[in-house]
Structures are given as structure tokens and as C-alpha cells.
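To the wet lab folks,

You asked to see what we're planning to order before we commit. Fair enough. Below is the target structure as C-alpha cells, and below that is the sequence we designed to fit it. If anything looks off to you, flag it before the synthesis order goes out.
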């Protein structure tokens, strides 16, 4: 565990630090330090073409890294920032290409977590941060998840349990029609209500425009079986009745199943959960069926 002040010093020196956000813990590095960013990819075992999200604490930081800021951006942030919405914009040339996985766009997000805001503001530049887990593993929602993946000496700032529990919604404003790249707790409908138009989706079969979405993700070691009836011999079960099939606790429960040595995680799908687009997206991806 390290203090906010220590985190700021380590980040300025160009070393990654895990920081809390309201969605999941992030593995942060200053955006203008390509060597620090390379360390993030190396630590996570992350494919080089999977772009990172830049976390900002004020709008000047967005202007520093984004080339064009359309009016729709302001409409969205007025309603959803600070919070779990990432907006993809054309990037400026000063943003190192390692940060964006070779893309000419950059995802930006202003987290609502006070500790995250303080750290970004103190470092003074946007911090790029993917989720602070080994690539492919469930995202971390508390410091012990980060230590599980990176060892107990890894520098983490404790900000408690992440309130949202799954990663931000990602929407791209790079093209004429805004596109939903990753569902999250801010729903498609809420975004459409602000934009007053239907969102587009990346077409199947095309190169995914959120490159991260093409990799197996969020996966525990145990096999996930989604069922309508749980067999009597089932040992580890996620179901809404027990408040366990829920975005906030979803990743923590996948990690718990692995710690307990479960071979199968049984998921009892109910009508409420199956309508939760973000939860279903993570569940299907974790089970390898999406
Ligand atoms: O809630 C979150 O977004 C967390 C916290 C730490 O902020 N971060 C997070 O980062 O989930 P990561 O790296 O695990 O996921 C980033 C996602 C990936 O699917 C990536 O492909 C997409 O956002 N993405 C980032 N920049 C993009 C860009 N320029 N164009 C398209 N997709 C982008
Ligand atoms: Mg991730």
C-alpha cells in the first residue's frame, strides 16, 4: 500500500502505479512518458495493439491530447462526467503512439473517484491506465486483486472497493455517427437520450474498433456454465437472489471462485440479469462465448 503522495512521485519518475477508480483499479502511467507506458504493456502481458484510456482531471487535459472536440462531446460530459464514460476522439500528434496501440484516436475519461482525481491533478498530465490485472484475467475491484496478479509488493493506492465494478462504457465520436464500442453501467439508452440519435455498433467481422474487445477477457481459471437451473451438486453458484450476480461484485466473485479452487462456476441466469447489457457482455466474454 502506498500513499497518494508516494504514488505521485513514483508516477512522475516514470514507474507504473495501481490507482483506484469507481469502475475498476487502473494501472497508471503519465501519457507523455512512452517508456512508462511500455512497462504497463509488459507487466500486463497486453497485446501492443490494444489502446489505453487517458484519465483526466480537467478539460484542459482533454484539449492537450484531443485534436477535434465535437459539440456532442460537451453534451455527453455535461451529463456523465466525472464518471464511467470513456469518449474516443481524434488524437493530437503529441500523444505517443504506444498509448493508442497505433491508432490515431485516444479514449478519454474523467473518473469520479476522488483519489484518482487527486493523483491525476497532482501529476499534472493525463494518466493512461488499463485495468490493473494480468491481460485476460478478471479486472481488479480492490487492492488485493492487484496484488494477486502482480505480487504483494506492487505499489497500489487503496481507494476501497470499486463502486461500479465493471469497466467504463466506451463511445467513439471519431466518425460521423457516434458508435458504442463497449457497453458499461452508463447504458446505450442513456447516451442516446443525450445525443438524440441512435448509436451505431461496430459491424461484426470488421476489424473491431475497440481492439480490446477481440481478445478473451475477464476470464477466471474455472469454467463458467450459464444455466436456467442449477444442479444439486453445484459447489460455486452465482445468482441474483444472493446478490452475487451483480456488476459490482461480479469480478470479485470470479476471483473468489478461483481462490476456492472451483472447477465450475454455475451462473443462474434470471430475467433481470439477462437484460443488463454490460453484465451480460462481461459474463459471456468471461465464459468464452462472446
Ligand atoms: O473503466 C475503465 O475504463 C477502466 C478504468 C481503469 O478506467 N479501464 C479500462 O481499460 O477498462 P482497459 O484498457 O482494460 O480497456 C480499454 C478499452 C479496450 O477495449 C480498448 O480497446 C478500448 O477501451 N479503447 C481504448 N482506446 C481506444 C481507441 N482509441 N479506440 C477504440 N477503442 C479504444
Ligand atoms: Mg482490461
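Sequence we intend to order:
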Amino acid at each position: 500500500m502506498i500513499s497518494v503522495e508516494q504514488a505521485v512521485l513514483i508516477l512522475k519518475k516514470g514507474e507504473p502505479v495501481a490507482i483506484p477508480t469507481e469502475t475498476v483499479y487502473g494501472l497508471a502511467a503519465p501519457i507523455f512518458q512512452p517508456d512508462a507506458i511500455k512497462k504497463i504493456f509488459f507487466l500486463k502481458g497486453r497485446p501492443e495493439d490494444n489502446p489505453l484510456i487517458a484519465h483526466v482531471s480537467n478539460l484542459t487535459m482533454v484539449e492537450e491530447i484531443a485534436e477535434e472536440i465535437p459539440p456532442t462531446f460537451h453534451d455527453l460530459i455535461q451529463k456523465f462526467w466525472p464518471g464511467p464514460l470513456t469518449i474516443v476522439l481524434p488524437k493530437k500528434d503529441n500523444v505517443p503512439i504506444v498509448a493508442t496501440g497505433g491508432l490515431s484516436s485516444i479514449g478519454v475519461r474523467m473518473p469520479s473517484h476522488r483519489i484518482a482525481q487527486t493523483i491525476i491533478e497532482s501529476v499534472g498530465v493525463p494518466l493512461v491506465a488499463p485495468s490493473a490485472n494480468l491481460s485476460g484475467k478478471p479486472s481488479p475491484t480492490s487492492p488485493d486483486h492487484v496484488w494477486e496478479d502482480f505480487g504483494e509488493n506492487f505499489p497500489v493506492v487503496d481507494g476501497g472497493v470499486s463502486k461500479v465494478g465493471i469497466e467504463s462504457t466506451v463511445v467513439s465520436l471519431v466518425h460521423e455517427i457516434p458508435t458504442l464500442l463497449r457497453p458499461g453501467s452508463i447504458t446505450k439508452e442513456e447516451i442516446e437520450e443525450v445525443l438524440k440519435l441512435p448509436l451505431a455498433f461496430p459491424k461484426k467481422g470488421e476489424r473491431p474498433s475497440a481492439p480490446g474487445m477481440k481478445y478473451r477477457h475477464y476470464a477466471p481459471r474455472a469454467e463458467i456454465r450459464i444455466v436456467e437451473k442449477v444442479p444439486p451438486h453445484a459447489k460455486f453458484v452465482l445468482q441474483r437472489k444472493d446478490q452475487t450476480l451483480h456488476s459490482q461484485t461480479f469480478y470479485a466473485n470470479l476471483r473468489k471462485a478461483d481462490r476456492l479452487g472451483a472447477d465450475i462456476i454455475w451462473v443462474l441466469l434470471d430475467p433481470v440479469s439477462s437484460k443488463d447489457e454490460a453484465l451480460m457482455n462481461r459474463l459471456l466474454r468471461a465464459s468464452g462465448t462472446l
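Structural context that might help your review: The first strand starts at residue 17 and ends at 19. The pocket of threonylcarbamoyladenylate (ligand 1) is lined by residues 21, 23-24, 26, 50-53, 84, 86, 88, 100, 103, 105-107, 109, 129-131, 167-168, 170, 181-182, 209-213 (CB under 6 Å).

Thanks,
Computational group
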